[in-house]
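ESCALATION

Customer reports they have been waiting on this structure for their group meeting. Please prioritize. Original submission:
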Amino acid sequence: MIKRRVHVAAAAIVSGDRHEVLIARRPSNVDQGGLWEFPGGKLAPYETGFEALRRELHEELGVEILRAQPLIRVHHEYPDKHILLDVWQVHEFAGEPFGREGQAVRWVPMEELANYPFPAANLPILRAVMLPTEYLISAEEDEDAVFMAKLERALREDGIRLVQLRAKSLEHDAYVARAQQAVALCREFEARLLLNGDPMLLDEVDADGIHLTSERLMSLERRPIAEGKWLSASTHDRAQLEQAARIGCDFVTLSPLRTTPTHPDAAPLGWHDFQQLVEIAGMPVFALGGMTRFDADHARAVGAQGIASIRDFWK
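Update from on-call: job pushed to the front of the queue and completed.
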């Protein structure tokens, strides 16, 4: 049976301080009625995603979009249809949102979104909404004091809120000791810290999650950590992206987008191939490999969650 294809535009409307997001409840008389969702609706003939979003938000909520940016595109298979969710993050709007069609709408704190039942297709959107747009990967540092000083600068001055502790030169005990210091510092700034290493590290350090190397990713048969922790992975091609989806990664890095000094022989993806892979990822993707803050808007425009970097964030 050929499934019907449904293209939907949806909005993640985030409050100015990024602590709350607007969600709406589906009417009880429609498919998956009673569940919560991000406001939006189906594209009319010849509409673009953004045009449909502007129309739908006016019709449903009585607001006008002033500034918005692509967030994520999600393909999801239901038994009877294929859904493409074209999701935009709305940064500025005019008007006070209310349910013009009688639907319940609610501003919900980010940390409480997981308490609301959403359709399965909305789950990658939840992750994208809760993640920042910059992912710091720490550089190798011999001295803990130097490491902590650079980490604090990134958290305090640059506003970094997602960190991967990458320290392959450290022995196990030294890595655990550094990780414990880093977790405490990240907590002060309400930042998340992921450990680059064996998932069993979470038994010793109460970090926010684990980042898998591509080699470890491909060796796994199932998700190696609890759902309450964040799981990310390094990916470089379609097979690795599919494996990340199979084991339930929450987000990934995809690299190298450009040639880098540390991997001069690795063939860069370039923006075109990167965009094609992001389209099928089904989860938030951070662009990695020669990225700087000047690339952030371009990365978001082609579907990325944002950028990941060592050199541009670790100074």
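Sent to customer with the following note: The first strand starts at residue 4 and ends at 14.
Escalation resolved.
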